Structure formats: structure tokens, C-alpha cells
Amino acid sequence: xxxxxxxxxxxxxxxxxxxxxxxxxxxxxxxxxxxxxxxxxxxxxxxxxxxxxxxxxxxxxxxxxxxxxx
Length: 70
Fold this sequence. Notes:
Order of helices and strands: HHEEH
Low-confidence stretches: none
Distance between the termini: 22 Å
Radius of gyration: 12 Å
Strand content: 5-15%
Shape: globular
Number of helices: 3
Structural class: mainly alpha
Helix content: 40-55%
Strand order of the largest sheet: 1-2
């Protein structure tokens, strides 16, 4: 099963590592590339949710902005 985000960066020709690096550089949001967990993780990213609700909301706004720029 793929997510909307994985579909977007796959269409853009980005690996999960490239997606993660660009998201950090361009929107200051850190996620872990799925490939860090082995070959079956490619196409996904992992995010820590152990923060405030407000910080999560801001991260989602930034992720949406990043996806819209692809």
C-alpha cells in the first residue's frame, strides 16, 4: 500500500533519501528515509510524532508546501 506522499516523490523520481534531504533543506522538517530500514522501506518516510500538537500542525503545513513545490 502506498501513501500519497510516496506517490508524489516517486513520480518526481526522488528516492526516499532524496525526498528526506530536500524536505529538511527546503522546509526544515526532518523525517527518516524508509530506505534506512532496508530495501522494503524505499518509497516511504518515517516521522517522529513525540512533540506538541502545534509543532505537528506546523510540520504538516510545511510538508504540504514542499509537496506542492514538487
